[in-house]
Amino acid sequence: MQYFGFLPVTVTAQGKVLRQMPANLDRPGPRWPIGRIVVPPSGSVTLKIHAPAGWLTPLNGTNMTSIVATRVGTEHVVPLRAACGRYVDWYTTPATSSSR
To answer: 73-77 contacts: CB < 8 A, separation 24 or more?
Structure first.
């Protein structure tokens, strides 16, 4: 989930609190994990996002930009170059040699 705000937010689904997120004053670039859910056969889950003021709007300083869902167990390790145009959860770079 990406968000920006002066207020903390609480994310719930299926009657459970998935995550209580602190206020985030950084740009909404990083995606923060909010939890795991099991999607029922209907293929639909409602996420509820609550800020202390009761609603989310740029006027009260809390703004949601996106939520991304990924299927568990579909992780693949590929060279970074092969990940162009795809979501990347993490990456590492080769250690550089300090000797010459």
So the answer is: none
How far, rounded to the nearest angstrom, does the alpha carbon of residue 59 sit from its chain's CA centroid? 22
d(CA 62, CA 21): 12
The whole-angstrom distance between residue 15's C-alpha and the CA centroid of its chain comes to: 19
Its pTM surpasses 0.85: no
**44-76 pLDDT, tens digit each:** 888 888 877 655 565 666 777 778 887 777 777
Going by C-alpha positions, the residue among 55, 47, 58 that lies closest to residue 5 is 58
- CA-wise closest residue to 16 among 4, 34, 41, 40: 34
**Cα separations in angstroms, 58 against 4, 64, 87:** 9, 9, 27
CB 11 within 8 A of CB 35: yes
Predicted confidence (pLDDT) per residue in 9-48, tens digit: 899 998 899 999 888 887 766 677 888 888 888 888 888 8
